[in-house]
Amino acid sequence: MTLEQLAAQSGVAADKIVAYTKAGLLPCKDAHANFSADDQYWLDMVNCFLENGSSVEDLKDLMPLCEQCATN
């Protein structure tokens, strides 16, 4: 799906998704590529952490570990 489609489905503004992608918080590392259902799952997880008080800086360390655990 496109960035705009992901934004519409997730309720997260496209500019925030781009920022999260650039920060390395989503498996898709290119904000202009097509996003998958997996990317939407990770975006939902990022939003959950942020809504519960984590910062983007906190997640820069945490999300790669989560991705690594998910692939093992």
Automatic annotation (TrEMBL):
<dbReference type="GO" id="GO:0003677">
    <property type="term" value="F:DNA binding"/>
</dbReference>
<dbReference type="InterPro" id="IPR009061">
    <property type="entry name" value="DNA-bd_dom_put_sf"/>
</dbReference>
<dbReference type="GO" id="GO:0006355">
    <property type="term" value="P:regulation of DNA-templated transcription"/>
</dbReference>
<dbReference type="InterPro" id="IPR000551">
    <property type="entry name" value="MerR-type_HTH_dom"/>
</dbReference>
<dbReference type="Pfam" id="PF13411">
    <property type="entry name" value="MerR_1"/>
</dbReference>
<feature type="domain" description="HTH merR-type">
    <location>
        <begin position="1"/>
        <end position="64"/>
    </location>
</feature>
<protein>
    <recommendedName>
        <fullName>HTH merR-type domain-containing protein</fullName>
    </recommendedName>
</protein>
